[in-house]
Design goal:
Elements (H helix, E strand, L loop, with lengths): L2 H35 L2 H23 L9 H4 L7 H19 L1 H22 L11 H19 L1
Organism: Sporolactobacillus shoreae
Keywords: Membrane, Transmembrane, Transmembrane helix
InterPro entries: YdcZ
Length: about 160
């Protein structure tokens, strides 16, 4: 690996770590919002509405448009359009789980689920991603995550 590619990869990994740090903060904030509005679903809706407002602003600044060519909808694969509903499941589940499990256990359980499906997606190359076969090193990494969840749960 060249020095330039190592720096780029390290920068993207750091970006991923920082993005990962946002998830538990979002979960904790949304869980408190749930208490304030007395509904996990209203809290999730508020989260998505405020996120949508930010995305409208960012899209207008970067793309200078909000127009979508509707002809792409029937021409594209069905699963391109399920990200929003999947986000609802993710955010609302976090809101419901945090008061029951705590922040650390909620995040590690969700992360474990993310890793499990990520390994499967990589292995089979689903959704057009480059295939990365499951090997013993990846299985050991996943087993260590499960071990971490057990340790966090019991201590």
């Amino acid at each position: 690996m060249s020095k330039k590619s190592y720096i780029a990869t390290s920068t993207f990994l750091l970006w991923g770590v920082v993005a990962g740090m946002v998830s538990p903060v979002q979960t904790a904030v949304n869980s408190r919002l749930r208490v304030a509005v007395d509904s996990p679903f209203l809290a999730s809706l508020i989260s998505f509405v405020t996120g949508t407002m930010l995305l409208v602003i960012i899209t207008l600044i970067t793309d200078r448009r909000l127009k979508l060519d509707l002809h792409i909808i029937p021409e594209s694969r069905w699963w391109l359009w399920i990200g929003g509903p999947l986000g609802v499941i993710f955010v609302t589940s976090n809101i419901l789980l945090l008061p029951l499990l705590g922040a650390a256990l909620t995040v590690t359980a969700v992360l474990c689920g993310q890793m499990m499906i990520a390994l499967i997606i990589d292995h089979f190359g689903w959704f057009g991603v480059t295939k990365h076969k499951i090997n013993w090193q990846r299985v050991v990494g996943f087993a260590l995550m499960i071990t971490g969840i057990i340790l966090i749960q019991h201590f």
